[in-house]
Structures are given as structure tokens and as C-alpha cells.
């Protein structure tokens, strides 16, 4: 899944969301965003302050709200507002895993445009 190329002076996050409509059809949503941050700072932002992500890529992420649970806790539900192909979209995700030692947080999309023709969709962020 996404990772930091530690040789870069400006880390790049490759944010990936996979969608699966059937066992043979898959799709991918990716965005490359330059962020000047350590892996720990990046993980802290996505795990505990995802509502700050729009400050780093406001043209792609419009906002993030906690729908249920606590920031950075497994089982929490997060609502994202983002732009794809010039159109405002929404997604609701559940936090499936958090591992600070690996700078990992895994989301699974449960509602929104990413689910239109998807049975399962997941999004993970890992740097380090």
C-alpha cells in the first residue's frame, strides 16, 4: 500500500483506494501529494487529526468529520469530502486497523461514490 520513499527530501504520499465490483473487475483511486513531514507526523495526522488533511491538499480533500467513535480508534467511522475529476464527492469509512509502530492506519469504505459499483473497498496509509 502507500509508502514513503525515505530517500526523498519531500515525502510523497501515494494514497490508494481499491474498489471491487466483481471477482474480475477492480479499480483504483490514487493521488500523489507532497507533504513535508516525518512518517510519524504523517501517521499522527491521518490517525488522530484527519480533519487537518485538507490543509495539505485542499484541492483534493475538502474536509473530514468524525461520524462515530474516537479519532484513531478501530471501529470509528470517518466521513470524507473530496474532489475527484473536478466533482465534489463523499465517502464514509470505518477504521479497521491502527499500528503506530508501523505508522499504519487502514480504512474500509462503507458508503459514498466509491461504493457505487463496489462490494468491498479499502484504503490504507502506511509510511515508514
TrEMBL record:
GO term, biological process aspect, one: defense response
Stretches assigned to the Bet v I/Major latex protein domain: 24-123
Signal sequence, start to end: none
InterPro entries: Bet_v_I/MLP, MLP-like_ligand-binding, START-like_dom_sf
Disordered, as annotated region: 1-21
Xref: SMART domains: Bet_v_1
Gene3D superfamilies in the cross-refs: 3.30.530.20
A Pfam cross-reference name: Bet_v_1
Record protein name field: Bet v I/Major latex protein domain-containing protein
Native organism: Gossypium harknessii
